[in-house]
# Entry
Amino acid sequence: MQIFQKNSFYDLAYRRFMRNRLAIIGAAITLAFVFIAVFAPVLTPYGPSEFFFSADGTTYSRYAAPSGAHLLGTDALGRDVLTRILYGARVTILVAFSAVLISTVIGTIVGLVAGYFGGIVDGVLMRIVDVVISFPVLFLLISISTILTPSVWIVVFAIGFVRWTNTARLVRGEVLRIKELDFVSAARGVGSTSTKIILRHIIPNILAPVMVQITIGTAQAVLMEASLSFLGVGVQQPTPSWGNMLIDAQRSLVLREMPWIWIPPGTVTLLLVLGIYFLGDGLRDAFDPKQ
Amino acid sequence: MPLTRNSKGVTTVSEILRVSGLTVEFSTEDGTFSAIEDVGFGLEQGKTLAIVGESGSGKSVTSLAIMQLLAENGRITAGEIVLDGENLLDLPPNDIQHRILGQQISMIFQEPMTALNPILTVGDQITEVLLEHQGIAKKAAYERAIEVLREVGIPSPEKRIRQYPHELSGGMRQRVMIAMGLVSEPKVMIADEPTTALDVTIEAQILDLLDRLKREFGTSILFVTHDLNVVADIADDVIVMYAGQIVERGSVLDVFEQPKHPYTQGLLGAMPSLTGVEGDLPTIPGVVPSIANRPSGCRFHNRCPFAHPRCTAEAPAVYRVGGQDVRCHLFDPHRSEESQ
# Structure
């Protein structure tokens, strides 16, 4: 199948990627979770906040063990765990992708400007990066969630705000390297403007490391969301997220005797992060011409 | 062609490029240093002028300054660069971008591996200047690119134009670079060590190509190199640079037959020859002084076999000797007897 122009950098990278089994597995896992997130309502007959009652109909069916009706049992409030896992994929993936989108856009622009123009601009931007890196993230988020009403979007912006610095540093380094190469001088030597040089010669050449950074950033954002929600400062009930489904595991009774409550969200988090990392490693190898 | 003598006594024959008094300073953390000082020469229509020197002599800085491609900390502080009657240093930057660079003057770089963008096809890169500044339609630009690729001796250019740099050999890439420099038929082409990274056989082919282009299109070539064999091969005139200054200037014939400056003599003496006597090759002792650390007086005095007290104290002027201009006290006509 010919997706890119034959023998172009991306065509060669694509072919190398398709030969890498682990990368394909990673891509398949990631895509499977995206599929689950998109089709959650079709995949389960229940709603994520639907309460179920015990057989006599008088009490909520709390902490019910897995059964035919509830394949992964029910949670503390009598909701179907599997359904919440499926809907949780939506939240987790939405948060991770949105946060990475924000951090990539900010990071790439800051890195490009700092690296290309250098001098004072570079100095100022990189000091801002230093300041942001020095922020105590957890403290910041706990403060925000006590002041503002916690919501999915606050988590997205919080993670995006913290993570753009990595992208900015990476992009700046790449730009510094590439702008010294002769083809950039050659472009200036035929009278190309800075805008044209950035768009045509620099951005396409930093796309590969940025794509690798995007995958790694997504995996880390998934973990970050899970941690924040687990600590109660991220995504709030009743919205399901894999992180807040694990909150119940803080109780030792649940941890010891009700594995259906915490093994599923833990496992899917692990699987998704692992899948994205495999994908990212595969991309890095595919983009490296020395491979 | 009319022969004239300008105020400096240099004979000029329809010069397409005249550089005079060119001085470039670099500001670093340790202070400001001049990389080249008072560099002046003329490039005649349809001729090749070679700039020769060791690393650090300022030959590359000179060519980058003409192309306005100096690094951010470099600045032209004095001089004129007159291209076909226009002083480039008086023109606004966007005029230079839009009208001069790539069109009236172009540059070929040393490393064909890094001088082509790996993610663009050969055709995309050759047509860049045409599409960017000349308002030529894409189809016509690609046809022109195919034509130029054929002129620089690339077989089946219709196929090559869609290929990427990594699909080409080093020699092919250098031909593509030359095609890029040639595509808008510039008056002057600057070639910065265009063959240094190539095999000897490929080097000979590229030199032949440049020579042919010069004759067919009347392009004037400024050829920067450290290789005297190449100079003898391709150039009409030669400038020898040392530590940021021109130390000798003249026709290749004159300079190679009768080098005047002790540095030029040393360079030519260090050149292996097929017919020469056996034995150790003579070398010039020492290295080119660093930019921050240039000796007083004549900059070559600490390596010069003919150095005398005046050389450490006083910077030599340029003297006209035979067909050459030489920056050396040995050729001062008013030189006092006792200092000899």
Remarks:
- The first helix of chain A runs from residue 9 to 18.
